[in-house]
């Protein structure tokens, strides 16, 4: 059970995560729906930060938000493409999920869109249905390029076909993601989709893995399968609950230490030495059995 101290740490989570990520020399990605604004996160000091964008029906809101992120020094836009509709999150429905009364979606507070209405099911689901643009399409990648000079990463790609289209429409990078497996039951694990995407990308743009990373050995496997890097979510949430900013620093250091140990034990003195030969996938086993 979380204590009030740990809950307070989560509520200040974006700021703590931004400081910890900067200290570790790594990237922090801030959600559109964060409870700290792009300006507040920028105020904690320098750091490499991406902005995860949800596209609203009112495109003027999107323009304002992207421009604010750009002015706050964010380095890229992570366009979320797998959530034009929210999946059926039964835990949220059962618990009638909503934001605590003292919290708002701070990026939208000045637009009177920072609160979620109370409902009989999920306040988040109702908010998404009322605000997020379900007509989101590939042309919107090009539209975003007309309103910002920031590189646009497409978050939510899991197939070779979508990789080809993302490249065609000018994406600067791809994040292989299934939204933490919260959108669709029985969706494949992202690590099982990674190699297909990397193979299709052919080095034309970086491919990142999002989801399921819990240990440094998971990072090692992703790099071996061609990822340029990984994103983590739940480990940060858990570490915030345990010890706030210090917890995030600790989990980032643990992942680094575990990766370095895995590299040493696998005979890899540098990241460049991690190759496809270092992992055996289920697909490899099936192909070998057929020989």
UniProtKB/TrEMBL annotation:
<dbReference type="GO" id="GO:0005777">
    <property type="term" value="C:peroxisome"/>
</dbReference>
<dbReference type="GO" id="GO:0010181">
    <property type="term" value="F:FMN binding"/>
</dbReference>
<dbReference type="InterPro" id="IPR000262">
    <property type="entry name" value="FMN-dep_DH"/>
</dbReference>
<dbReference type="Pfam" id="PF01070">
    <property type="entry name" value="FMN_dh"/>
</dbReference>
<protein>
    <recommendedName>
        <fullName>(S)-2-hydroxy-acid oxidase</fullName>
        <ecNumber>1.1.3.15</ecNumber>
    </recommendedName>
</protein>
<dbReference type="InterPro" id="IPR037396">
    <property type="entry name" value="FMN_HAD"/>
</dbReference>
<dbReference type="InterPro" id="IPR008259">
    <property type="entry name" value="FMN_hydac_DH_AS"/>
</dbReference>
<dbReference type="GO" id="GO:0003973">
    <property type="term" value="F:(S)-2-hydroxy-acid oxidase activity"/>
</dbReference>
<keyword id="KW-0576">Peroxisome</keyword>
<comment type="similarity">
    <text>Belongs to the FMN-dependent alpha-hydroxy acid dehydrogenase family.</text>
</comment>
<keyword id="KW-0560">Oxidoreductase</keyword>
<dbReference type="InterPro" id="IPR013785">
    <property type="entry name" value="Aldolase_TIM"/>
</dbReference>
<dbReference type="InterPro" id="IPR012133">
    <property type="entry name" value="Alpha-hydoxy_acid_DH_FMN"/>
</dbReference>
<feature type="domain" description="FMN hydroxy acid dehydrogenase">
    <location>
        <begin position="1"/>
        <end position="284"/>
    </location>
</feature>
């Amino acid at each position: 059970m979380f204590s009030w101290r740990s809950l307070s740490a989560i509520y200040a989570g974006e700021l703590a995560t931004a400081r910890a990520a900067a200290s570790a020399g790594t990237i922090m990605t801030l959600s559109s729906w964060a409870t700290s604004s792009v300006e507040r996160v920028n105020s904690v000091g320098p750091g490499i930060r991406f902005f995860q964008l949800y596209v609203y029906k009112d495109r003027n809101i999107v323009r304002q938000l992207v421009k604010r992120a750009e002015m706050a020094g964010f380095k890229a836009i992570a366009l979320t493409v797998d959530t034009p509709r929210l999946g059926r999150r039964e835990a949220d429905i059962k618990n009638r999920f909503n934001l605590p009364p003292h919290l708002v979606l701070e990026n939208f507070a000045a637009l009177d869109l920072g609160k979620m209405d109370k409902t009989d099911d999920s306040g988040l689901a109702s908010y998404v249905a009322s605000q997020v643009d379900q007509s989101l399409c590939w042309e919107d990648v090009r539209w975003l390029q007309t309103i910002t000079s920031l590189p646009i990463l497409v978050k939510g790609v899991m197939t070779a076909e979508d990789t080809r289209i993302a490249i065609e429409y000018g994406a600067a990078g791809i994040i292989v993601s299934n939204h933490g497996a919260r959108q669709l039951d029985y969706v494949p694990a992202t690590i099982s989709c990674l190699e297909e995407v990397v193979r299709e990308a052919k080095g034309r743009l970086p491919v990142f893995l999002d989801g399921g990373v819990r240990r440094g050995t998971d990072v090692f496997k992703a790099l071996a399968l061609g990822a340029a890097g990984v994103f983590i979510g739940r480990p940060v949430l858990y570490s915030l609950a345990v010890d706030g900013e210090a917890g995030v620093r600790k989990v980032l250091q643990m992942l680094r230490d575990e990766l370095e140990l895995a590299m040493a034990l696998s005979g890899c003195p540098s990241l460049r030495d991690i190759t496809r030969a270092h992992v055996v996938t289920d697909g490899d086993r099936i192909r070998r059995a057929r020989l």
